[in-house]
Write a structure and sequence with these properties.
It is a single chain. With 717 residues, the protein is of the alpha/beta class. The protein contains 29 helices and 28 strands. It has a six-stranded mixed beta sheet with strand order 6-5-7-1-8-18, sandwiched between helices. A five-stranded parallel beta sheet has the order 19-23-22-20-21. Strands 24-28-27-25-26 form a five-stranded parallel beta sheet, with helices on both faces.
């Protein structure tokens, strides 16, 4: 049996959260068509969609320092899937038409023209192929104009009347832009010229920089900084009543020389990939393979055998059935004929190049097209400008943040920005810029987390002691007080945490301790932190490797002095980080604020129901709860395997406890650990909440504070 990739592909979420859904929802938000607005976008009179070619969500979150404005917007933003192949021709086809690739037929960088024996290159359009005939469906521009919406496309001058533009983006007023400043100015002018306007702007330099120099190169990071400034400038110039959406057509991965299978090589593993092949289409990361008559089965077997764990290889029928190009049943015969007899989506950082037939494409360092998270996940960043103007001077006098989820009350899949699955983490760890891993296994009363870590942990993880490094010494402030910023920064740097690198935290299974680490990192200013859903148990259940003892990653010399504590040496084998702690990025309650919130808003008690009611208390010296608090045990946030319940279920749970669209919510527990878990669950449901970190163990230190017992409020647990 042929080998297969260790991870599953990220299949596009057509009809739920993909690029065609964004396009359709944007048009619906302008025309008021609620049924077509699958993303639930707010109704408005003006929309600008800025498409940044090559801006993958994973890359953005891994390079926050280069793009702080974008990174802040991306925190907990809703990700979209690009579609397959994750390439410019296909994605612009999806954005331009609002339908998946299976329907619009722009199925890749180069695909077969059925019956002609040749390939059609979507970026270098053949003069004898009619773009409108190739893609006849009406574009969102044509549909917008028909509804009375002024439509404009801002892009490099050479894109006007190009084959791709005529196929997928026709029907608009074109404005040519050859610089970032011009793009921002032309887009803003087009928005201001009409009270009912759709503007799509495209910028491609980040993609071209990544292709040549690679993602994460200095050149790429510099270009990302320019993009960050572009979005800032465009946001500052938005006319009143405008919503700006920022997305991308795909992400990108770097492909090293050892990761390439050359189909044009006279020898080597790739040499047999041309056997039985009439046309080799697609691109190095996403191949359409057109077999000679009668050879399809042999070609499929060969590609599966040669590529093994380096690619997801499917027959045309399998790819269509599995929804690679769109929901099953949408592909008609005419479109299916453009799909390869065999389709190969590359895993990891591998590629199938053709060094003779595709000299330029084969020489690129950064590539895209496949079904990995780095290529499929693209951002959907939102900036809503609702400025008012002084009637006399015309000066802008106010700015309102973009439609907070708590006021729109629409459940979104926030888990995509907070949680990460075991398979997704495995894929990131195999990439060029793996995340920093923190093992925070801990249980009140044992067993010791460090012993569990020594017995086996995710490769490369550093152990973090919750009692010592995620809390100040017990005393004033409770059993797990807030650590001092300097102490926390030292502990995180010791564990390898840097401000510009994704951090993934995990514990045994239910994320109780991991949530504490997540909350503290966010509170102290780290913008990119995710929790391994299901923890170490999910990792091992998925069959991923573990290592015993100290981490085997590159080492760092010398100890670090932690103020007020004994000297702490770096975690064995862990390179030092550069994280700087700046407190105040998440809301925090003290005892007085918690008491007030119990009367004016909603204060949730995250402990077990029997502790809330005062029936048992095996940890703190006094039993009971803060008067007015509602019992909300964290056990109700998770499934039996320790993974979090779906966002919709969590939303229903908290609404049942009294949380409404306008609620001010606070959370406490025994000492601020399980309360962080509750805060994370609320975030998954799209509900912000403040944390009383000292919690019950702090509350009872003042005998003047009242104590309640019994069921009082909420549903007894």
């Amino acid at each position: 049996m042929a080998r297969e990739p260790r991870t599953s592909p990220i299949l596009p979420s057509y009809g739920e959260s993909s690029l065609p859904d964004l396009a359709t929802s944007i048009l619906a938000s302008l025309t008021g068509d609620a049924a077509a607005n699958v993303l639930g976008l707010p109704e408005t009179g003006r929309v600008c969609l800025l498409v940044i070619d090559g801006l993958g969500l994973e890359s953005l979150r891994a390079h926050q320092a280069a793009a702080p404005f974008l990174a802040e917007l991306a925190f907990n933003s809703r990700p979209l899937t690009a579609g397959f192949p994750s390439t410019t021709v296909t994605s612009l086809g999806s954005i331009g038409t609002g339908v998946p690739p299976a329907v619009h037929g722009m199925l890749g960088y180069q695909v077969a023209d059925p019956g002609t024996g040749r390939l059609v290159n979507g970026l270098n359009w053949p003069k004898d192929v009619d773009p409108v005939g190739w893609q006849p469906r009406p574009t969102i521009f044509e549909r917008a104009v028909a509804a009375g919406v002024t439509s404009t496309y801002v892009a490099p001058r050479g894109y006007d009347k190009s084959g791709l533009s005529m196929a997928a983006l026709r029907g608009q007023q074109f404005k040519g832009s050859d610089s970032l400043g011009t793009l921002a100015a032309l887009a803003a002018d087009a928005l201001g010229a009409s009270e009912w306007a759709l503007v799509v702007a495209y910028h491609g330099d980040l993609d071209s920089t990544g292709h040549v120099y690679g993602v994460a190169s200095q050149a790429w990071e510099f270009q990302l900084s320019h993009v960050n400034r572009l979005v800032e400038q465009l946001a500052s110039a938005l006319p009143a009543g405008t919503v700006l959406y920022v997305t991308a057509d795909h992400g990108m991965v770097n492909v090293g020389s050892d990761d390439r299978f050359d189909a044009d090589a006279p020898e080597g593993p790739g040499a047999v990939l041309r056997d039985g092949v009439a046309l080799l289409g697609g691109e190095p990361r996403a191949r359409h393979v057109y077999a000679a008559p009668g050879a399809a089965a042999d070609v499929l077997a060969t590609w599966r055998e040669v590529l093994g764990e380096h690619a997801w290889v499917a027959s045309r029928e399998e790819a269509v059935k599995d929804g690679w190009f769109g929901p099953p049943g949408l592909v008609d015969e005419a479109m299916a004929a453009r799909i390869g007899d065999v389709v190969a989506a590359m895993a990891g950082t591998s590629a199938v190049i053709a060094s003779k037939a595709e000299t330029l494409q084969s020489s690129l360092f950064g590539m895209h097209g496949s079904l990995t998270a780095a290529e499929q996940l693209v951002p959907m960043l939102t900036i809503a400008e609702r400025l008012t103007r002084n009637a006399a001077s015309g000066e802008r006098v106010g700015r309102v943040p973009p439609f907070p989820a708590r006021h729109t009350w629409r459940v979104t899949d926030e888990s995509a920005g907070i949680l990460i699955t075991a398979d997704e983490l495995s894929e990131l760890l195999a990439g060029n810029r793996p995340p920093t891993l923190l093992d925070v296994r801990w249980r009140l009363g044992g067993p010791p987390g460090r012993e569990l870590y020594q017995a086996g942990h995710i490769p490369g993880a550093a152990f973090v002691d919750l009692d010592r490094e995620l809390a100040a010494p017990p005393g004033v402030g409770g059993r797990h007080p807030l650590p001092a910023a300097d102490d926390f920064a030292v502990a995180m740097r010791r564990a390898g945490v840097s401000g510009d690198r994704l951090v993934v935290v995990y514990d045994d299974a239910d994320s109780t301790a991991a949530a504490r680490a997540w909350w503290l990192l966010r509170y102290f200013g780290h913008r990119s932190v995710r929790v391994l859903d299901g923890g170490f148990r999910a990792w091992t259940s998925a069959g991923h490797a573990v290592e015993p003892g100290p981490s085997a990653s590159p080492g760092a010399p010398g100890p670090i002095d932690r103020p007020g504590t004994p000297e702490i040496a770096p975690a064995p084998g862990t390179p030092l980080g550069d994280f700087t702690a700046a407190p105040g990025h998440l809301p925090l309650l003290d005892a007085d604020a918690a008491a007030a919130l119990a009367g004016t808003g909603l204060l949730l008690d995250a402990r077990a129901g029997e502790r809330y009611r005062g029936e048992v208390e095996h940890v703190d010296p006094v039993a009971g709860h803060i008067p007015g608090a509602v019992s909300a045990p964290t056990a109700d946030n998770i499934n039996a395997d320790g993974t979090f319940r779906p966002a919709a279920d969590l939303d229903a749970r908290f609404r049942g406890l009294g949380v409404t669209a306008d609620s001010e919510v606070g959370v406490y527990c025994g000492s601020g650990v399980t309360a962080a878990h509750e805060t994370l669950a609320l975030a998954l449901a799209g509900l912000p909440a403040a944390l009383y970190l000292g919690s019950w163990s702090d509350w009872i230190t003042d005998p003047a504070r009242p104590i309640a017992t019994g069921p009082e409020l909420g549903t007894p647990a």
